[in-house]
Each structure stands twice: as C-alpha cells, then as structure tokens.
Amino acid sequence: MAHEAEIRQFIVTAFAPDIPADQLPDHLDLLDSGVVDSLGLLRLIAWVGDRYDIPVEDQNISPVQFSSVAAIAAFVRDTHSLV
User: Fold this and answer.
1) Rounded to 5 degrees, what are φ and ψ at 24?
2) Which of 9, 23, 26, 37 could form a disulfide with 70 if both were Cys (CB 3.0 to 4.6 A apart)?
3) Where exactly are the structural domains of the chain?
C-alpha cells in the first residue's frame, strides 16, 4: 500500500490540488475522469520512472497501466519483480 499512497499524493499535488489525497479512489480512471490528460500522462510516466528507478523507455507501456492509482502501483510492483 505504500506505493499507492505515494502515487496518490503525487497525482493530487500535480493534477488535482482541490481533491484531498484520501478522497482519490485507487480505482478511479484518471484519464476518463479528466484528472490526468494526455500531457499529464507523459509527466506521470516520467515521474514513476524517476521515483521508482524504472527505465520507462525500455518498457512496453500502455495508458491502461497508468489509468488509476491501483494500476500504476501494480505496474511498479510488476516491473520491480522482473528486475
């Protein structure tokens, strides 16, 4: 759950400062809801790569992997398990 809390905090700080972090559901579709737009998605992917030391340019990434807090946390866990 540590990844989820950190990811959620980044998302509300960067994209939705009017939403308290504890009120951003883990499974809310960030793209469909408009919390994150296409440019924000690029920023989010870059942050995840930097924060979790994941060479995102070497990954086969799809927007689905970054569609929610839960999906991003799963991507981080799955990527780290491959290393």
Assistant:
1) -95, 105
2) 26
3) 2-82
**Measuring CA to CA, how many Å separate 8 from each of 33, 45, 60, 66, 75?**
15, 14, 23, 12, 14
- Distance CA(53)–CA(35), nearest Å, equals 24
Helix axes 38-51, 69-82, angle to 10 degrees: 40
Q: Where are the alpha helices (DSSP H) in 1-83?
A: 2-14, 38-51, 69-82
> Could you read off the pLDDT of 21-61 as tens digits, one per residue?
999 999 999 999 999 999 999 999 999 999 999 998 888 89
Q: Is the pTM higher than 0.90?
A: yes
Residue type, position 71, single letter? A
